[in-house]
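Sequence in, structure out. First:
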Amino acid sequence: MIREKNNFLRFTFGWILCGIVFMVACPKLIVYGQTSAEPVVSSNHAPAQVLQVTQKKSLIRKIGLVAPVVSAATTAKNVELQNTLRWNFGAKRQRGWYLYVSLIQHTIGTKSGAETNEFARAVALWQQKEGIYPTGIVDGETLSRLIDFWQSRRLNTIVYAAPEDLLTAPIADFYDPTREIELLKVERETYQAYKLMVSAAASELKLKDGKYLRIVSAFRSREYQAKLRAASPHSGRAGLAVNSPHFTGRTLDLFVGGEPTITKDFNRAVQVQAPIYKWLVINASRFGFYPYFYEPWHWEYVPRNSRPPGTNLPLTPQ
C-alpha cells in the first residue's frame, strides 16, 4: 500500500514538472494558443491573454531563467527577419521590422544595430522581462509585444477638445505657410511642451533646416476629419481614424523629412533614418510626447497625470 502511494506521488510530481518545463519551453502556445509567427497587432490583450502573460512572467521569474548566450545564428536570424518577417497591420500585409529599428533599440535599451550580438542580447533580456522565452530574436511574438508596448504609451482616451482648451498657434510653427487659420489650433499644454521640445532639438542637433519639427497637422474637427476620410476612402485601419487622436488637440504631425505624411514604406524608410526622428525616439518623452509607431511624423502629447511610470520629468529643455 505504501509502495503504491509512493509511486502515485512520483507519477503526479513527474507530470507537474513536465507541465512547468512545457510552459517555459513553449511560450507561444501558452500566450497565443498557436506557434505561428503572425503577430497579433492590437493595443490591448484580451483579459484571458493578459492573465496568461502575467502567469508566465511570474513563472519565468520564479525559475530564474537566464538570457541565453547569443550565437552567430541568432544575429543572422535578426538580420533576415528585419526584412522578411510577414505580419499584418490594418488592411496591409507588412514585411520586416527594419522601419522600427530605432524604436526597438530605444525600448530594449541598446544603441547596437540588429546585426550585432549586443542587439540580440538586449532583445533576450527584454523578452525575459516580458515573459517571452529569451531567444534574442525579434520574431512575430516579440514584435507583437513591442507594438503593444508602444501603443500602450499613447493617449488612452480620445476626448474632443473644448474651444477654451485650444489656442491658435502662429503660422510660422507650421510646415504649410498657407494653412487656413481654423487648422492652426493646438491644445494649450501641448503647445507649451512642443515649443520646449523644438527648442531642445534645435540646440542639441544644431538644426540647419528650419522646417524640421514644424507642425503638419494638429487639431482636427470632426467635420474636417470626415472630409479627409472621404478623400481617402481606402486608407484602412492604418490610415485615417474615425475617432482620431487629432480631435484632442494633443496630437501633432511633425515634419521629420521625406514626404510629410505619406505611409508608403519607401517614404517612411527615409524618415526613420533622419537624425531628427532618431532624436525624437530618444527624447520626445522628456516633453510628454509618445509616437504612433506606424507613422514617424505622428506624436501624441500625454498629460502628466496619464504618463507611464517614471516619465514625469521636469518640462524643461535638457
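Second:
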Amino acid sequence: MNAAITIILIAAATVAALLTSRHEEDGSPQGRTAWLRATVYWLSTILVAFEMAAGGLWDLLRIEYVRVVLTHLGYPLFLLYIIGVPRIPCALALLAPRFPRLKEWAYAGAFFNYAGAAASHLLAGDRGSQWIGPLILAVFTIVSWTLRPASRRLPRPAPAKEPPMITWCVPALIVAAMLVIAFITLPKGAPPNMSSRLRVDGPGLSVATESNPQKYLSSPLTT
C-alpha cells in the first residue's frame, strides 16, 4: 500500500513538474528527444528529492528504522540531526527554479550522502541489498545533474588560456608536503582534554580508549 502511494505520488509529481517547466524555459520541449530528456530529468529529480525529503523527516523524527541502521553501522545517533536538517532544504533546492549555484551544492550534498551510505554498508560487510539502494540513488543524482535544463545550470565561463604545467605541479607538491608534515607530527595518544576512561559519544555508541580498547555498541535497540 505504501509503495503504491509512493509510486503514484512520484508519477504525479513528475507530470506536474513537466507541465510547469514550460513556464520556466523558453517554451515547451520540442521533439521526441527533448521530451524524453525532460521526462528522465524530472523523474530522476523527483526521486532524489522525495528520498531526501522523506529521509530528512525520518532522521529528524528519529524513527526506529533509522536508529537501528545507524547503530548497526556504528554511527552515533546525533548524526541523524546533522544529516537530517539539510536534506529537506536540499530537496527544495533541487525542485525550485533558478538558483543554479545552490543546486550545485544540493547535488553535491545528495551525491555524497548516497555514496557515503553505500560505502558505509559495504565497509560494514552488509549484503548487496543494503548498499544497492543508495548506489542507485547516487546514479539518479548524477543523471538529474547531467540532464538539468539551461535555466538550472551555471553560466558557462569565458574560455581561458590553458595554464602552464607548473601551476598544476606546485599545488600538488604543497599538498604532498602538508601530508608529510601531518605524518611527522602525528599526535600521540588521546587528546589531552579527554579522559582516558570510556567515553560515550551519544545514545547507543561508545568509543574505545586506552583503558577499554574494544569498541562496542550498547543500545536498547540491540539488547
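Remark: The helical segments are 2-20, 31-61, 64-73, 79-84, 87-95, 100-123, 128-147, 166-184.
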